[in-house]
Every structure is written in C-alpha cells, then in structure tokens.
Amino acid sequence: MKTPSPSDVNITQTESTTDGELITINPGESAQVETPPAIETGSICDVKDLYKGLENCACCITWSAEPQKKLPTTATDEIGGYAILTRKTEGHGDFGREQKLHSIVIQSPLIRDVLEPVLKEYPGITSELSSLTIEAPFACFYHRWAELKAAFKLCTGETAEHMGLLMTLLTAEFDGIQKAMSDLLRNDVIEHKYLWALYNPGDVLIAKLQGQDAAVIMEDGVEYDDTPSGDAGYALLCRHIDYNGCTTGFLSTKIKIPEFKGSKPLANLPAVPLRAREDKEQLTEKLVRQGAKFAELRNATFLEYSGAAMLTTQRDPDGDDDQRTQIQVCFTLPFSIYF
Asked: At CB < 8 A and 24+ separation, what contacts does 159-165 make?
C-alpha cells in the first residue's frame, strides 16, 4: 500500500492571533492578521491613571499603568491615545486622599485649544505644546479658575466632553484647597504651604520700598532653598517703576518670604495683594498721588533737600564675588543737596 505523501494530504494548521483568536491557514499560505488602526494622540475621551513606579535612578521618576505594589516588569498599556494622563504617587495624599496627584499630561488637542487663550502669558506655560505637562499644585489652573469655567461653558460637542474630564479632575483637586483658603483669608492669615494660592501672577502687591508703601506687579512666585545658609521660603519675582536720573521704567526686584510654621497674619507679610487689603480704595488714591508727585519731581528744576540721604556704591564688576555686592548706607547726619 502506497504511503501518502504530504502533498497528497490537505493539512490545515491553526495559529493564534495577538488577542487569542484562532485562525485556520492552509499549507503554503501565510497568516494575515489585520493591523488595528493607529490611535490618534489624545483622541480617547477618558482619563488614564499612571502611578509612580520603581526608581531607575535618583533623579528620574518612572510611571506605570498599575500601582507601585503591582508594578509589572514591562509596561504594556497603550497610553498615547488618552485625552488626559494623571500621574499619582501612593500615600501622603491631602485632605484624606490615599493617593497624591503629582502631575497631569494633557494630550487632547481639543483641550489645548481651549486652554490657549485661558493660560495666555501665564509664566512657565506653553499651551501649544503637543503634550502639555502641568505639575501639582496646578497653580495656573487655580489662578485662572474663573476664566477656565467661563471657557468651559462655551464648549460644545466632543470638545465639551474632553473639557469635562479636566474640569471634573480639577474640581476634585481644588475643593479642599479652596475651602482652606476661604477659612484662612476670612481670618486674615495664611499658611506657608498656601502662599502659591495667595499670590497670583499679574497681581498688584503692596510692599515697602525704602520704607515707603509702593505698588509692585508680581510676575512669578518660586520656592527657594539656599542650603549653605539654611535660608528657605517663597520668593516673589516682581517689577516696579523707578527712575535712574535719566530714564523712567520698570525695575525687577525679588521679595523673599522665609519659611514659617503655622499661620501668619497677612499684615506681617513683606508684600500683600492689593485685593486683600481692606483699605485698598484709600491706599490706591494715596499711591496715585504719590506717583504723580514722583513724576513731577523728574523735571529739571531748582530744588533743595535737607535730611537723611541714601548713598549707593558699586564695586568693580571685574573683581571677586564678594566685591560685587551692592552697599547701601543711610546717613543720619544732616545732608543738603541743590539741583
């Protein structure tokens, strides 16, 4: 009896696809598996949670789709398509939460289009980036919250769905902060950890410059830590109008608020937002008169002054670091000047 050869027998084979489905193929035929269409970045109307993973080095943070306690050896989840990514760290959550929101990544172009006019000119934010990452405490959203809510009300269709994800996320995040700030300001005090919420870039602040009340414009606020000197706190980067004898313009200045424990009266801060002052109307009128007098004194005329004077000297800029320090001396002796 003739033994059949492989070519005389119709043999079928099975092969498993990536999703576990079995397909039948004939000898000599190659398996053809349809490739799923690519997902456009930020097109999935959903929020994808990411969790702090195992540290590869001391300076970097890795993010996983699973909590750290269940961290897989390889990350297999596709995250590029989600409108928003939320990066969370376990433990140390605020207001009773078990997890703390570290940062959010906005991938949806629909959301970025809405944010562009809302966050325009906010320091450190470029909303046109294809992947916009904003870290906690999300100060830009907190300070532009009214504008953000107004923009959300104008959204329709798919844009409204994507924006709804962001608004739901931020509402939950800001609820405890807004309640805490309301309680603090009602009592005219502030805690150091909420200084970022008190000072809004673009605010007019009232500060003391050379012993006089002066209005300055806040440009940004940053944490500082001068480790060698042990000096740490929150710094306000501001600008104010000044005159150097020839030109009138803006001069930059840094106002430091050293770190403090507990709560502190607003009146004891080196700078207070004008909107938080109870006497803001009277103070505004006073500063307008003061500014008009300042502008008047710039004109060349004969004047006489007798009293204390401030002398400023500048060391050789090519010298050592300690020689470039600006020295200000206030004379207490009678001083007269004619000009």
From this structure: 159/110, 159/111, 159/113, 159/114, 161/45, 162/45, 162/83, 162/108, 162/110, 162/111, 163/110, 163/111, 163/114, 165/45, 165/46, 165/47, 165/83, 165/84, 165/111
Phi, psi of 264 (to 5 degrees): -140, 135
Q: What is the pLDDT of residues 28-78, one digit of tens each?
A: 554 555 666 666 766 677 666 666 665 655 455 665 556 655 433 333 346
What are 95's two structure tokens? 């207001």
Closest CA relative to residue 168, chosen from 45, 32, 70, 58: 45
Residues 132-158 pLDDT 10s: 999 999 999 999 999 999 999 999 999
Rounded Cα distance, 207 and 273, in Å: 9
Domain boundaries of the chain, sorted by first residue: 44-185, 201-297, 302-339
* Lookup: tokens for 275: 């909107």
Best CA proximity match to 87, nearest among 127, 135, 132, 43? 135
What is the distance of C-alpha 55 from the center of its chain?
Answer: 24
Residue 117 main-chain phi, psi, to 5 deg: -75, -30
Residue 94 in tokens: 């605020």
**In which element (H, E) is residue 272 found?**
strand 271-273
- Nearest of 254, 214, 253 to residue 235 by alpha carbon: 254
Please state, in angstroms and rounded to a whole number, the distance separating the CA atoms of residues 301 and 339: 7
